[in-house]
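User: Fold this one for me? It's UPF0250 protein Lcho_4239.
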Amino acid sequence: MQDIPREQSLIEYPSAFPIKVMGAHVPGFLEAIVEIALRFDPAFAPDSVEQRPSKAGNYLGLTITVTATSRDQLDALYRELSGHPMVKIVL
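Assistant: Here's what I get for UPF0250 protein Lcho_4239.
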């Protein structure tokens, strides 16, 4: 992947970067997402995860805020989250 010159990037690194992850409200979903976040940001605070169940309770929306250190890190994190079988969507 071609690097975007620093002056053209919309994100300044390092920075706190929120990511929304949605999936079925099933046991282990939160823990799986926290485990992934910790692999990409060892300083990630699991107790900082914001949780929002859907109205019917079938889905769970999570907001994780990681310390973004590079575009490559964010791209890899998005790929891993998106590829997880419990995840429906990543924003």
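One thing worth pointing out: Residues 11-88 form a domain with the Alpha-Beta Plaits fold (CATH 3.30.70.260).
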